[in-house]
## 1
Amino acid sequence: MKNIVTIFVFAFLLSLITVAQTTGELSVTTTTSETGGNYAPRNIVAIWIENDQGEFVKTLLAYAQNRKTHLNTWQASTTAAGTAYNTTDAITGATKSSHGTRECSWDGTDYNGLAVSDGAYYVWMELTDKNGTGNYSSFLFTKDENPSSQTPGGVPSFASISIDWQPTGVSVLEISENSISINPNQSDGNYTILGDNIEEIEVRSISGKLILKSKSQIIDISNQQTGFYLVIVKTKNSMVIKKVYKY
């Protein structure tokens, strides 16, 4: 009985949760080199951000115009997001005639200009100097209130890599506790989300891993392990995040 009471109290205290969206700037620098393609030293290159689910967030740099279709990994990422070759706010230009240092930055927003939540993200780099797939690599970093600096080892076509995140502050999403409710908040994994103008629902682990994404207000995570989960309810103008317990 004591353990059950503790769970209820803990769940109640954590029923109001906000999502941290740390403001700041990510600086990315790398020096490029050829892949051995027949157009070398001419090359096209793209650098972009994806979240930890492999979803396109924003392009930072794209020196590629007429031959951009040969940056197949970047093409696939942007196309999957429904915004093929998106270069909103990116550094852009034509095919480069030689290799050198490429620099770009990210302000923590997606291609729609919306601030993204803190968490794990990847910097992707891709370069080709032929009519086909060239070299590409990705590098993990964490966007949060802590500054970080890393210099990954060189990979094919990319050397002297520097990835620096410098936070400037933390903003918090406004939520309305009474606008959304979950019935029950403890169950074997089946929950009904109650509220108006709900557009999408996500369920994530406490560590932030995406478990489920749905437009249905009835969710089922009965196949997951026992424990607490975050339910993220997105409406047209707001986001509400609550914790539920799956026993």
## 2
Amino acid sequence: MHRFFVPPSALTTQPIILTGDQAHQVRRVLRMRLGDRATLLDGCGWAYEGILVAVGEADVRFQAVRRWEAAGEPATQITVYQAVLKGERFGWALQKGVEVGVSAFVPLICERNVVDDLSAMESKRERWARIIQEAAEQCGRGRLPELRSAQLFAQAVQPASPPALPAPRRSGGRFILWEGEAQARLCAALAGCNFGPGAGIQIFVGPEGGFTEEEIALARGYGVQPVSLGPRILRAETAGVVAAALILYEADEM
């Protein structure tokens, strides 16, 4: 069945009404007919089976016939702080990150960013959000990955709360991908993580020119561990996707 993420508020009444691009997709692109079924997702973990009962010029309507808890979500919550890239590369990183299983994305402004205008980024949010939603629908995600507001690097590396006392095993971790790291590999660093339900892992991915040594030093100061992905240098749009795949593999969720 075709899948559509819809606002939770739209699922509180019957029939469920889709408008705009989604209505156009049902009517003109997919050419769905009355009686056809689709999966409607609220983005929060619930899925509904809907039967198409009306097709109009402005909207389409589905009758929900059953509800279940949506699958397709990893227990490990990965947040990728991805430096904004030029052209279509940032959208590609979002799309493939969704397919792998990333839970949230934060557009990042670093010293070597080619694109560094925060206000210009806000104008791109709608397009980026659409890329995330379409990828989540295509690959069978049960929740809609979050797109957070853009942040400056110095702000993003600061922990949300004071670090806890050292423990034998961490729940999650914070890692920054850096080609200058000669010792610590990501997979080895993940051995210290406890991949229980709700474990949160943050990954920082640099721009086309990579992170500066000053940024790496700042990250270290806030407890973010520099790691390498191996002997080959990956492109900025590829590194975060590979890192997320490795994390979920180590968590036995691939």
## 3
Amino acid sequence: MRSIPLKSMSGMFLMLLASGCSNSRHETTEHYYLVASNIKLPYWQAALAGLRRGAGDLKVKADMVGPDTYDPAEQRNMFRYIVSKKPAGIMVSAADPVLMKSEINAAIAAGIPVITIDSDAPGSQRLFFIGTNNYQAGIAGGQVLVQRLNRKGNVVVLTIPAQANLVERMRGYEAAVAGTDIKFVQTVDIHGDPAQAFDKTMEIITSGKQTVDGFVCLEATAGKEVADVLSRREIKGKVIVAMDTDDGTLDWIEKDSIAATVAQKPFTMAYYGLRTLDDLHHTMPAKLDMNWSRDLQSLMPSVIDTGSALIDRTNLNTIRTARQ
């Protein structure tokens, strides 16, 4: 066998190395999207930071789109437009899972991987869900409610009834207060609008129609609005349990007006979601429209739990330091 000179071997190795470095698995046209709603909220800005970090790590293009307000119909229209662009993959937080079901199924049928984050659409053909175990988040908030109310009292719930994640949180609260004398006496649909949370709380407080001992806020915007109303009216002794960690919510915890908030990880949801979409795009299953949840040898998980944490005055400074 004829030997190859060392000098020639070195040259060949360098050529192969250069070829390998330039031949990334990512194409220049590869583009991923996160479709959300109410995207100006601090919660979704945290998700956008995770998306951008993931895009930088993977060297791909990724954008977040969605209406600036809670508008499920507009979110559906934006999702439909993104599908028409034939992206490499889509993450969606379904404002209305019923409205989004057919749109997600159409994207899957077109060969576009779709996963849900934050708010699921379990009746659709989405591949899997990445986000909080919302039932357990409700349990955590409910335990605070039971302790602070000493197991009895009337509670108002501020929510968006169409969102699957908030429905699951409410189930957790109901389980946590079972066997106590805590009653959920009113449910208020704030439509994702902090102004409505403020106005409805003011109306409840000033009407005097019923005694209210506590407020449960199942989404990110309501907690600080409830606290603001009670502060303006100089009302003490009401228990508020909030959701998520925008600065206003944390400020009211520091003032001891909000008892606690249940924190999620939107940064992690978007970051890890992008990495899974990238992997799906490059190792695409032969079929996307399978019932993966019933396949005991499934290539897909059903749910990836990104975790949650309870924040109150005892750990507030630690959380703020970590965020900085």
## 4
Amino acid sequence: MSVRALSSLLSSDLAIDLGTANTCVYASGKGIVVHEPSIVAINTVNGRVEAVGEDAKEMLGRTPGHIVVIKPMKHGVIADFEVTEKMLTYFIKKALKRNVWVRPRIVIGVPSGITEVEKRAVKDSAYRAKASEVHLVQEAMAAAIGAGLPVTEPGGNMIVDIGGGTTDIAVISLAGIVYSKAVRVAGNEMDNAITQYLKKEHNLLIGERTAEQIKIEIGSAFPLDERTTMEVKGRHLIQGRPKTVTVSDEEIREALAETVNVIVDAVRVALERTPPELSADIGDRGIVMTGGGSLLKNFDRRLREETGLPVAIADDPLSSVALGAGKMLSDFILLRKVSID
């Protein structure tokens, strides 16, 4: 076995995309090893963690009184310090498998609008979860690197990263961020909009998981080529009993219109504030979309219509941030240039 192969086997460095909806962990030499919901189920009687990630998501809306299901991340930053620490510890252990005595170096992606206090909270949580070194990088930069954009070249690259809690928009050139904006409207807001719409138009109360399912199956940002419908089960608000209604893609598009418009407007503002030379580059190269929200049907077409620019979705939009942060684990010169510690 070569020295390089051996060192990558023994290396325990991790890159983490600590997202509002999902946490994605990249391990040096192994690639993506964890991709699970950022959810923790806690027993309120003894304070014990009952489940984390996928198992905790299964419990959403189905727990007995003494178990609470917590989403410790809000808008890409830590809302519940203690629970985030438990969640991070769990994911780090899972990523390192048996190497529990190892203290990894960790690169974490954070939203561009993060405050000093929030930065401190992310770092402290990682150190408490047994990290030896922690480096923070902006999610938009990590997503651009993960999507394969030539960020170190003197040319404009535009990335739109639509996560669960925030949409990060950035224009990047020479490994630096020329313009960045984090809008606290993204995938979770879309789910919320669907829930409110069904409540108002159909008197139907649905849970978070159902709203997400509707968004994935028939949600869209631009008219679909073929009309589709879906049966939705929930509780009737007035009668109080289970009820099934049929909703169309048109209705859900109407429900999502406001949220989608906020993101489209933010992209428009970013284009207006980009220096002319870089604008010309973006005109040639187009816009790259990443994050789970970019998978909303026809979102790329909608942006194309609105901006008149080429729009592409990254090859692996859900893992772009973790993959980009992962590339920095082996490229310390680049990490030094882009880290925001």
